[in-house]
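Section: Multi-chain targets

For targets with more than one molecule, the full set of components is provided together so that the structure can be written out for the assembly as a whole rather than chain by chain. Components appear in the order listed by the source. The example entry contains four components.
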Amino acid sequence: MNWILGFIILIAKLGVVLVGLLLLAAYLVLLERKFLGRLQIRYGPNRAGKFGLLQPFADTIKMLTKEDTVPAEADRVLFLLAPAVVASEALLIFAVVPFGATITLWGKKVPMVITDLNVGLLYVFALASLGVYGVALGGWASNSKYSLIGGIRGAAQMISYELSLGLSLVPIVMLARSFSLVDIVRAQADYPFILVQPVSFMIFLISAVAETKRIPFDLPEAENELGAGYHTEYSGMRFGLFFLGEYVNLQVLGALVTVFFLGGWRGPLLPPVVWFLIKVLAVAVLMIWVRGTLPRLRYDQLMHLGWKFLVPVALLNIVATGAFLLI
Amino acid sequence: MTIYAAIFYVLAGVILVATGMAITRRNLVHSIVYLIISFFGSAMLYYLFGAPLLAALEIIIYAGAIMVLFLFIIMMLRVDPSSLRRPDLKQWLPASALGLIYVAIAILVVTQDPGSRTMLEMALTKPRVFGEFLFQKYWLPIEIVSFLLLIALVGALYLGKAFARDAREREEAEK
Amino acid sequence: MIVPYSHVLFLAGVLFAMGVVCAVARRNLIMMLIGVEIMLNSAGLVFVAAALRWQQLEGQVFVLFIFAIAAAEVSVGLALIIYAYRRTGSLDPEKYNILKW
Amino acid sequence: MTWSLFIPELYFMLMIGVFFCLAMVLRPNPKRDFFIALLLSTLGVVVCLASVKLEGTLFYNVYRVDLFSQVFKVILAIGFFLVICICSELTGIGERYHPEFYLLLTTCTLAMMLLVSSVELLTIYMALELSSYCLYLLVPLRRGYGVHVESGIKYFLVGAFTSAVMLFGIASLYGVVHTTYVGEIIRVLPGVIGRPAAVIGLLLTLCGFLFKLAVFPFHIWAPDAYQGAANQVTAYIATASKVAAVAILTRMVALSSGSSTYLVHVLVTLSIASMTLGNLVAIVQKDMKRLLAYSSISHAGYVLIGIVSMTQSGYAGAIFYAVAYLMMKFTCFLVVVKVAYDGSDLKIAQLAGLHRRSPMLAMALMLGVFGLAGIPPTIGFTGKFLVFVAAMKKGYFTLVLIAMINVVISLYYYLQVVRAAYLLESDASLPPMKVSIPTKLLVGTLVTAILVLGVFPQYLLELTRAAASALM
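Its structure, encoded as tokens over all components, is:
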């Protein structure tokens, strides 16, 4: 019986996380549009429902009912596959993210994480590194110049920044002495790691923004040069999947920053899950703010920042942390 | 047959089919995609064989870095699939002869070797144990591999710039 | 209990043969390099299975080093291939046979 | 842990650091780079000589320092020094890239030093890869002569292929013997040598070393790499890297200690094939470096004769042969480098009239080539003699007979070279060559060594015997 109960709980957790993620993604779009509107002294969407609160549903219905076109010379299978890679990769990362303290249900301990892998951090990296394929294959399969250039740019950018992303987390692993995300949260019982690893935090944040291809690193889809970059040729729900992927990725980014640097679900007074949400949203809002503030980088600036600044600094940071731990 | 054995055979099938497709596709991008599937299967096998760390690294390095690099190069060079000839008989013949000899040897190995019939037991390597073992015992190879990566870096940098340098030198020579 | 060691050996052997075929028969520099990658990967499978067979860690360590080798190989190999491609405009090794006996 | 055992390697690592800084920081200056390299490599020989008597093991026994390894380290350091000596006019490589050239050369030497001392398969494999990668990158480093890219790619692809094969071999070997230490494999292997997996594993493992040595089925890279690479790089590949390959091959074959007849059969076949093929194809060559490439393929066959006899005298003979080979080959390459002063490839016909242009170089070339051919007063004869005697003692009469025939065949093309240098007159009256005093000194030393060690080989022989006994 225990086995069945465990299975039911697992399914329940999966369902809650999935629905939560999708809902949050939809409302993040609204939040972004509203907030950006305010930053640019305009209103943003305000017609559908009170304050435009029904806007996400309107968008979803629009996406679902639009015609799904495939360019004539496109590589059909890969063209259809690419958006799914992006969306599923982003969703799968949440499998190892702990979003609350362990709670007891009917006398059974239920950890608030779908699965606690002992190589959780590497699992995150593995999935993140697969996100490249959605972009690159999508760009290639469209058989269009803009898409191809967008795809190439995306691939180059993502493999470059994956390096600094990985290196920035090595000190965290050294401090927590574990790859498991649950253990990393546990290691921050006394203080969040942002206090001892501010450099890591900054590098991680910058690289993660570059990985999600948001402004100021949105060269793969720079609209004034490339149309919409790698997803120029996509329409309907396939475009919707790219779109969904982007906003789920925003949450992933928020969740990872929360887990690695902000102490995870820890916080006073409020329940852990609420704290977790607050922190994730705070990071997301920060990202939107960055988007409203900073201009896009030039391509060479992007590469120089990654290879000549972030990677060396991250390496030095590792050495410094190592020396600190040794002494 | 245990459930693990079933998983193994399914994965083995996936790997073999994907690799087989990969090496016969004319379109290089399709080859790469099949190969990614194959490496995914290998990563799962590593996990099954109790090496979760290696499974994760297999995906990060093989599927996530090496194959992306291939894809990137193929996209950048704009290799036209129609320009690639199908390998003709002259090339297939020695290759398949080699392959047949090899398979014969493999069958020989499998059937003649009493030791290879031992069943593999389940085990799990914790990343920490693995790391400690690695850094204690294989200290020297790690240093060597760091040199190797340094050399590869120097070489890739040099070769990346070599073409522009050649063109410049040729221009100077023409003057 | 998973499977006999020999079955893994067989799987790796066939994979290895496929890699050899890809490296020898495909008339394309990139595919030749990919063939070598497949061969390296099959060696990795044998190592992990052997490590499990003997309940030792050495085999797994080997695989880690194979990853490093593969990475170095691809970076150097692709750099060389791009260099050659820009000079000759072809990925076909047949075109490179200026040097004969 | 006694770090003093590791001093030669540490010294070379330091040297790599120096060149790395030179390549990164300072403006290119060929003269300065050359003098730094010369100075450091001279010191390197001294360091290696000073540590020749050391003995011990390091790093969890993966690294053994004994007479065998130390002797080879000295030989490698000398080889490295000699190659640096002919780099004074490094015209084959762009000036901007001289520090990189020295960096790669030093790293390669370091890797080979690590290789000859390693007694654990992973370490051996990694060291082998490191040295190979340096060479893969040294070949296309040449200034645009067109063929260098092609030969670089060929060399690289064949090398990568062989190393994957070797890795698979190590994997199946490990699957049988459950250890990666060479010493323990020696203990376990005789019990399991009957199993196909062990034999195949060992054979595939040997592939990697045979590739380095350019033995028959793995020789296809050699002529192209030799011709495509800059002359100095070719000299290095032909001398130092071959010596390291002999060392490690000897160590690996000593593993099986003759308990597998399959292994012996395979090695004998390979030896015969590479001797015959190398010699026959060398006859039609027009390019000097390609000729030397095929000659080195055939020499790989001769060395295998010594190794395959699997006795102490056989191993000693192989080591002696490697030393002799290094000196003779290097002498030939010295002449190649000096005659082709602009860094281009050298045709045999271009040697015409050399005896008038520079009698000294002509004489050096003649002696080097005679040595390679195995003509009596030279060290090459002594080397061949030792190897053949060792094989005769084991009763490999046919093998020795075939080798003898091969020696006779090889005389033809070696004499062609001598004929070009002495008997042919060049149509355009080229001016006499200026040979600098250090070069004269170097040539003099080499020639003396080739002759003196050929006539009085006792001391060197003792040394190689001692080194070989450390192996058994």
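The first helix of chain A runs from residue 2 to 39.
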